[in-house]
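Researcher:
Attend to token order:
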Amino acid sequence: MGSCVKWVDQKVLRCTVFADELKSHCESWAKQGRNQCSQWADQGSNQCAQWADEGSRHCCSWAPCSWACHAYYWVSKWVCKAYYWVSKWVCVAYYYVVEYVCVAVAWIIQAVCKVWSWITRPFCVLWGVVDCALRGAQHKPPAVPIDHVFVLMLEDRSFDHLLGFSGISGRDAQTGLLRSINGLTPDTDLAGSGKEDSSKWNWQVDPSHGKLHPQYPADYNLFWLKLAGDRLAMDGEPSHEFRNTMRQLCSTYDREAQQWTDPYTNFNINHVYPPIMNQGFVADYCLKLDGTPKPKIVPEAVMRCFAPSQVPVLVQLAREFAVCDSWHASIPGPTWPNRFFMMAGSSGGLDDSPNWWDYPTWELVDGYRFENGTIFDLMDDHCLKWKIYRGDDLPVSGALSGMRLDKTLGKVRSFDDFSSDVNDKDFDANFILIEPDYGHDIQHIDYQHLHDYGADNTCGTSMHALDDVRPGQRLIKQVYETIRNSPHWERSVLVVLFDEHGGWYDHVPPPGQAVPPGDLVDPTRNRNGFLFDQYGVRVPSIVISPLIPKGIVDGTLYDHTSVLATIEKLWGLPPLTKRDANANDFLHLLNLERARDDAPTALEFNPTLDWQGIVTSDIPCGGSNPLASVLGVVETGADSISASRVTTSSSPPSDWQVSRAQIALRHVWHTSGSKERIQWVKDFRAIRTVEDAERFLVRFREQVGVAGQGLTGTEAS
């Protein structure tokens, strides 16, 4: 859809929201008025009876005086009651008439808007066709022979965490000289232990445990219980919200006070990002924000890194193409704002995970808007084509304004369609975003030991900090092999990257002096007063194309808006914000005159092997993990949806769950009738606990179908 169509849809949406709210207000006002009519009439009728009864008791006692007196009060009582009865129904009828008139006005407003959209929308579509036809004759060829830019953005892993011990070396993209990646080289005296050379500063201080060095191997999956000798231990999820990331980067240990400093205190006053010391990863992992210790934490867990044999898919691609060892998250914070930067060159002021409870209804159902739009809007306006392949029924891109999951003209499709689409010789999408499965957002595991432990983000393919990395590698392998063996390989580039560090340690301090986007900032979303002038922690990024020489190591400073800068330079598009206008693109990596023919057509990957090549358990979802049965953990599966699985936790829901519920609300609002829309909004605003959020999501999936059937995909085309 072009900007014109989206403008029409937004106007109709606002009109519909206004009509729904007017109708709801009318009905509520009329119902309250009718109740007041009934209460007034009942009270008056009772007063009539009391007055008559009291008068009768004072009537004379001799006939016929008593007869006449009693008759008078009896008749007066019923005349009085009749008056209130008639008045009540006149009053009730008045409220019914006003309600019906008001509802009729709301219906007319909505109908006028709908008819207006029927007239203007086709005009917009026609104008877009004509405009694109005119532009087509003027289109310049791309800066390099690339027709398709694929982006697979995963979650929550730092560069050192995944590739720090990979030992990858290659030719520097700038100098052409051989060099190793900026990673973690084990000391020769400690070979095999995976400990970092103590002569470097790559260590963290934990007052209770001394120096903690980066080490391998890492656990495949933090969520599952682990047996450590004779003790049962569970490592918690590293935190990666804005305040947590600031503590990881900027906190220091005050030996005199014997506590870690809180850099947020001064930042909250002057909004100047504190100096980066890179010393607080372990401290943040072990401590709550108030400085008290977290229970059941293994301090060294956040320093663990994967051995290269644990992430073979990433290592193979990094050695075969270009690995970027200076690619940073766009902000020092969580998933949502970083993903928004990749799609819009801005987060619209969002500096933390979103919380949608208090937003106006039209904004809830319209989605996240940016002053200059998104890369999808930009490509629509310049007649370039895009697609989103969703591995999840609630993709983050589904929160964007105009990105209706039920009506995107075939542009948002299920990942199940990816292989067949890309292998179609007529596949013509220029920008392709692949969103992974973000895992469970409702309770899916029954614990015999720990019933109160949540299960967010597990059993997905996004590589979330809590989840197993092997399904994510399987997804990378599938995406690469599909593109590599398709008719479009020679004119394609694939970027595999991660939205943010997930709380995991990385030894490279993020550079400052990031260029703020310069667009409008919504103060309701800017919780922390962040100025967007600081990059986030370093994340893995691999650029893959047959036009890239084998074995390139690129130290160019990138952030997620480098994807936008590359697309904009490739097709001659204007920047969305000042951030992507100043971002480095990676087109210089695609410097071969002819496409390579030696790139592997298949990648080696065996999820049943541990880091030493010993056969171990497979991916622990779907009940196949032998450790789960030993520990009494029962996996119920990802596809079954039942209200009986909802946890009874009264704890506040995570921002992630609320955000998922908001995407669900957007979809179900657009596909429901007026009364259902009003009820869905009320139910969303009533979410206050984990149980509320899970019940909302379960109800959503029961309505649209298990695992998102009926959302998008071929049915939307």
User: Anything to note?
Assistant: Residues 344 and 465 are 25 Å apart (CA to CA). Residues 65-138 form the longest helix (74 residues).
